Structure formats: structure tokens, C-alpha cells
Amino acid sequence: MKPAVAHEVRIIGGQWKRSKLPVADRPGLRPTPDRVRETLFNWLGQDLAGWRCLDAFAGSGALGFEAASRGAAEVLLLEQDAEAVARLRAAQQRLQAGTLRVERADALAWMARAPAGSFDLVLLDPPFDSELMARALPLAGRLAAADGLIYAEQRQPLTALPEGWALRRQGRAGAVHFHLLRRAPGGYTAAAPRTQTVQE
After folding, report:
1. Three-state DSSP class for residue 36
2. Count of domains in the chain?
3. pTM for the model
4. What dihedral angle (degrees, nearest 10) is formed by the CA atoms of 24, 27, 28, 31?
5. Are 30 and 16 in contact (CB under 8 A)?
6. I need a surface site. Which of 66, 79, 179, 187 has the fewest CB within 10 A?
7. Mapping DSSP to helix (H, G, I), strand (E, B) and coil, where does residue 170 land?
8. Domain assignment of residue 61, given as a range
């Protein structure tokens, strides 16, 4: 018997706009809502041509596939759950996503050993009720390029940032708080920007 699929999410922009990604009913798996993804890619710009992106807790793959759909040169999806990995690889083949790669791995362990400065954008959306963000953020800060960005999504607003990083944008959609971080000039951590509220 096939595992139950709770629902699907749609890619909202780029070459695979309106393509569906299946979402399994798994503990802690809560795909980034459409409106949040729309807001994020408005912040980033719609064209990610040449970008190297890491989706560290891929889950449904919504964030990583969205980046690849918008022209990113390299997108790596990390996921530990075997069933989720199989779904991601099936979607990759169906869409013929040549710039996207799926790797089964523990995200924190992988990030700890990866070369510094490897990515222009690090996407962090760990299991919704986990405590992984505090451990993942410093690793993401090391992996981001000098002019790179970090996206972080969780139940609570971020209260601590990696050293030398500042909030560029932040928003809220229902229970989801989402943040875009950039390196702070001279290591200065700027005051938090105003929160943007979006409809789920």
C-alpha cells in the first residue's frame, strides 16, 4: 500500500509554475505556505540565475524547487527521511530539474563538514516544533558566501542571530515567523526591521 499523501503544494513561480509537489503526512513536516514563499521571492527578486542554494531541511522541497524554478544554477536539497527523499527524487526526475540535487543526510552534520562560503542562499526550515534552528543558524552563517543570505522559518521570531549577521527582512503568516538575514557591515548587528504580516 502506498504511503498516504496529506496534500500537495504548488510551485508558484518560474519555469515550473503551478507544478505540484506531494506532501506526505509526517511529524513536523509543514511546507512553507504559498504566501510566505511569494513574499520571500519578492524579497530575493524573481530571477536567481547563477545562485548556489542549499535547502538544508528539504521536507516537501517547496523552497528548493522554487529556487531552481527561478533559475538558480545549483540547488542542493538535504533530507534525512527516506520516504521524503524518494518523493523529492521522483519530483526532480518528473520536472527534469538538472540543476537540483537531492542528498539523504543529517543536515547539521552535513553543514558542519561542508566548505565555508559555498552558497549564495541557505534556506532553513527545520521540523516545525523542533529546536534545530539554534544549531543550524551558525552553520548556515559559515556556509553562506560573503554576500550571501540566510532564510530562516520557525514557530517563534528569531531571538539570536549568528555573529556578524543582521535581519534584513522579517514577516509573519499565522503561526509561521520567517526571516531573511544578511551579513552586518563591520560585524554590527542592526535593529530588527518591522515585521511584515501576510495572509496564509
Report:
1. helix
2. 1
3. 0.89
4. 10
5. no
6. 187
7. strand
8. 5-197
Counting every residue written for the chain, the total comes to 200
Instruction: Please report where in the chains the cell 512553507 appears, as a residue.
Output: 32
**Secondary structure (DSSP) of 69-93:** HTT-SEEEEEE--HHHHHHHHHHHH
How far is Cα 84 from Cα 99, in angstroms, rounded to an integer?
A: 19
The Cα–Cα gap between 133 and 57 comes to: 10
* 144-154 and 176-183 strand pairing: antiparallel
DSSP string, 140-166: HHHHEEEEEEEEEEESS------TTEE
**Longest CA–CA separation in the chain, Å:** 56
Question: How far apart are the C-alpha atoms of 21 and 127, rounded to whole Å?
Answer: 18
Residue 77 has pLDDT above 80, yes or no: yes
- What CATH number has the domain bearing residue 167? 3.40.50.150
Instruction: Give 93-146 pLDDT, tens digit per residue.
Output: 999 999 999 999 999 999 999 999 999 999 999 987 788 999 999 999 999 999
